[in-house]
Write a structure and sequence with these properties.
The protein has about 425 residues and is α+β, with helices and mostly antiparallel strands. Helix content is about 35%, strand content about 15%. The chain folds into two domains: about 140 residues, Creatine Amidinohydrolase, Chain A, domain 1; about 280 residues, Creatine Amidinohydrolase. The chain has twelve helices and 16 strands. The protein binds manganese (II) ion.
């Protein structure tokens, strides 16, 4: 990676940030990486640093007590706090492309205050209790800066594409290990980390690695050591980082023979097709929530065609049947945080309450498309007990329940004409 587009990324950010500072009447902006935080007050260990996202938008350096200072008409300053410490050291940055964009100032412990600007300053930090002087986390300015994060620069797209390629290396390794036979969730999780060259603490989010009925737990991270043999399923939802940018990819697999395993495998194939049909509907101007609604109609059709659902598409989509099989939202923005900001200008309609994305699709956005189909007792139990019970073939549900569920998730860049599917592109390379 050459990161030749980084200078242009900073130039665009500088221009847009100057406009936001002018509008909200600030003379300078201080973005704080954050302070080292104790895991709890009775412990002497600190959490790995996860910097303030607005800081990471400018600077990929992961160090505590670093500051990016933005002032109209001036080259941005990067203040580093360098401490003489023979116990610990920060992970060095993976490349040197960013230093030249800043005037770099190095200070000793606790001395950053000497070089930070005075006047009407906005300070954005994850650690408000340890903030330097200024107006801390002004909400309107944060809203404006969050908006900037929704349309990716060429540099950000390059980082997200690379983060996707890195994750796909892990996905290939975990698929291979799963299909080989007897294996535990813990071993699969570690296989992914090793192949994608990541420590658990620096992955964009904790890997979701589930076998069998655990695939029905949407955020399953309780990796068990128990070795599982024979026909079963695996759901793996795991990403990787490039600079500060993270990918977020899910695949589901089935292993072994038998009527139930074969039926579940066929269902994975159908959901995979459906996911690509949703991606094909993406274009600038379409409200994201419309895609989510269309997903429920497509899922209703899939349930009927695979023998899980009975009745009409309309009944299944409007009487809560599809929402019991697919409770979460269709996707979310990606960037320096895995559920990135700025694409939820209003809450979703009540029946879509977990949808994180309600903005209109625009060129330059990068978001996930991640439909699923799960057998979650807490949602199917009430459905089975209610009026809509006759719309489901419960025998088929009970046959598939040990496989937990399916999710297929890709990372999508919207372009003026069509999309670039960063995930399928990396899998087919
Ligand atoms: Mn996701």
């Amino acid at each position: 990676m050459s990161y030749e587009t980084y200078a242009e990324h900073i130039a665009q950010l500088q221009q847009a940030t100057e406009a936001a500072l002018g509008k909200h009447e600030f003379e300078a902006l201080v973005l704080c990486s954050g302070a080292a935080q104790l895991k709890n007050r009775f412990d002497d260990q600190t959490w790995p640093l996860s910097p303030t996202p607005t800081y990471s938008h400018w600077c990929p350096l992961v160090e505590p007590d670093a500051y990016v200072i933005v002032r109209p008409g001036k080259k941005p300053t990067l203040v580093r706090t360098v401490v003489d410490d023979f116990w610990e050291t920060a992970v060095p940055p993976e490349s040197d492309h960013f230093w030249e964009a800043f005037d770099v100032v190095t200070v000793g412990a606790g001395l950053a205050g000497d070089v930070l600007p005075g006047g009407k300053v906005a300070v954005i930090t994850r650690d408000a209790g340890q903030a330097p002087p200024g107006e801390v986390n002004p909400s309107e300015l944060i809203g404006a800066l969050d908006q900037l994060r929704t349309i990716k620069t060429a540099y950000e797209i390059e980082c997200l594409a690379e983060a996707t390629r890195r994750a796909v290396i892990g996905h290939r390794a975990i698929e291979k290990r799963f299909l080989e036979g007897e294996v535990s969730e813990l071993e699969l999780h570690l296989t992914y980390l090793l192949a994608s060259e990541q420590d658990d603490a620096v992955a964009p989010y904790k890997n979701i690695v589930a076998l069998g009925e655990h695939c029905a737990v949407l955020h399953y991270v309780a990796y068990q050591k128990l070795k599982v043999a024979g026909p079963t399923s695996m759901l793996v939802d795991a990403g990787a980082k490039c600079q500060s940018y993270g990918s977020d990819i899910t695949r589901t697999y089935a292993r072994g023979d038998g009527a139930a395993a074969n039926r579940f495998r066929a269902l994975i194939g159908r959901l995979d097709e459906m996911q690509q049909q949703i991606v094909a509907l993406i274009k600038p101007g379409v409200p994201y929530e419309d895609l989510h609604d269309e997903t429920h109609r497509m899922l209703a059709k899939l349930l009927i065609e695979t023998g899980l659902g009975k009745g009409s598409v309309d009944e299944l989509a409007t009487r809560g049947v599809t929402r019991a099989f697919l409770p979460h939202g269709l996707g979310h923005s990606l960037g320096v945080t895995v559920h990135d900001v700025g694409m939820k200008p209003r809450p979703p309609r009540p029946e879509n309450k977990f949808l994180r994305t309600t903005s209109t699709i625009e060129a330059g956005q990068v978001f996930t498309i991640e439909p699923g189909l799960y057998f979650i007792e807490g949602l199917l139990g009430p459905l089975r007990a209610g009026d809509a019970s006759t719309l489901v073939d419960w025998k088929a549900v009970d046959e598939l329940r040990p496989f937990g569920g399916i999710r297929i998730e890709d990372n999508i860049l919207v372009r003026a004409a069509g999309v670039r599917n960063l995930t399928r592109e990396a899998f087919s390379a």
